[in-house]
Design brief:
It contains no helices and twelve strands. By secondary structure, the chain is mostly beta strands.
Length: 178
């Protein structure tokens, strides 16, 4: 990755949090940098002491380059984290209970890592995924339906990236679309 002066990271892993929008209190304005220690123990599964780190907030409110909310208990609509005009490079919302319509999600063109596995996300895979230069994609274990779009980097991901959805079909899955 290129060196960037405005790289910002929001890391909330794993802590058992719920209610993603409640995390963005007015006290975290666009110019703040913070290190928070929430009440969820002193050691994460990966051995790190920190459960929440906000490392150098970007210049615009709620615009992070890297978001990792993985392995918590978040629920609700996380689609507000996406947007075609955001600087988002990587997002990991895996192993939560987020529930939103993926069909209408717009992605920033710089997005390279998208990990949404083990949630309750529904709808279809947006065709716009084919225009991204993805290095990682995992939408397995959700409630997605419809044909997997053809093109871009999508064919480079194996069936484990798409498996265990309600009714996804098409390559690389063995389920043919009718």
């Amino acid at each position: 990755m290129n060196q960037r002066d405005d790289v910002s990271v929001l890391f909330l892993k794993p802590c058992g949090f719920s209610g993603a929008k409640d995390l963005f209190a007015p006290s975290l304005d666009s110019s703040s940098a913070a290190r928070l220690r929430p009440p969820c123990g002193s050691a994460a599964r990966d051995g790190a002491w920190n459960k929440v780190e906000v490392l150098e907030r970007s210049k615009t409110n709620l615009d992070f380059s890297v978001i990792d909310f993985s392995s918590n208990q978040f629920t609700g609509d996380a689609s507000f984290l996406f947007g075609k005009n955001k600087d988002l490079l990587m997002i990991d919302l895996s192993h939560n209970s987020f529930e939103f319509d993926f069909t209408k999600v717009e992605f920033p063109l710089g997005l390279t890592n998208l990990d949404l596995n083990h949630n309750r996300i529904y709808g279809s895979l947006p065709e716009s995924l084919t225009s991204l230069n993805l290095q990682l994609l995992n939408v397995s274990y959700n409630n997605l339906c419809g044909r997997i779009p053809v093109g871009g980097d999508l064919p480079s991901f194996d069936q484990s990236s798409y498996s265990h959805n309600r009714c996804l079909c098409g390559a690389p899955l063995a389920v043919a679309c009718t």
